[in-house]
Amino acid sequence: MHPKHHFKYCPSCSKPTIFFQNYGAFECEECHFQLFINASAAVAAFILNEEGELLMAKRKHDPQAGTLDLPGGFVEVMEPAEDAVKREIMEELNLEVTHLEYFGSFPNEYLYKGMTYHTLDLAFVCKVKTFEGMQVNDDVADAIFIRPEKIDLNDIGLDSIRRMVLQYQKSIK
Description:
Elements: E1 18-20, E2 25-28, E3 34-36, E4 40-47, E5 54-59, E6 68-69, E7 72-74, H1 81-93, E8 97-112, E9 115-128, E10 140-146, H2 159-171
Parallel strand pairs: 4-9
Antiparallel strand pairs: 1-2, 2-3, 4-7, 5-6, 5-10, 8-9
C-alpha cells in the first residue's frame, strides 16, 4: 500500500488533520507541517567472473525471498552511492570492489511489510579484487554465476532488477 494509507495523524501536532497532496507530500491542515515522500536510493552490482558469468544472489528475505537478485542494497543517509556499492558487496559477499562504472537508474516500488516504498535503484558494473574468500552473508541466501544470456528474467523477483538485467543483456549483444 502507498504511504498515504498509513499516515492518519500529523507527526508534529498529533492531530488527525494530515492529508496527502498531489505534489507528493503530506500536509497538516492544522499546523501546516509537511512531510515529503521521496524515493529511497538503492544500489545493485553487475560482477562478472573470468568466464564472463554474472554473479547473481538469491534473496534470503522477503520481499521475494528465494528469487534471483543482483547483489546490493539501500544507500545509507549521507553515503555516496559508490561507497554503498562497495559496502554492500563486502557485507553480502565478502568481496572487495576495486573498480565500478555507473550503468543506469531504475525506479522501483518495493513492497515491505504492507507498505510500498518508492526507490531509485542505481546499477553499477563492478570488478572485484578476487573471488577467493567469497561467502554469502547478510541478505543473501546463495550466490551463483550464470551466463548473462542464460538468465531467465522470470526467476528475478524484483521488477527493477529484472529491467536492469534485461538492459544489461541487450548491452552485451
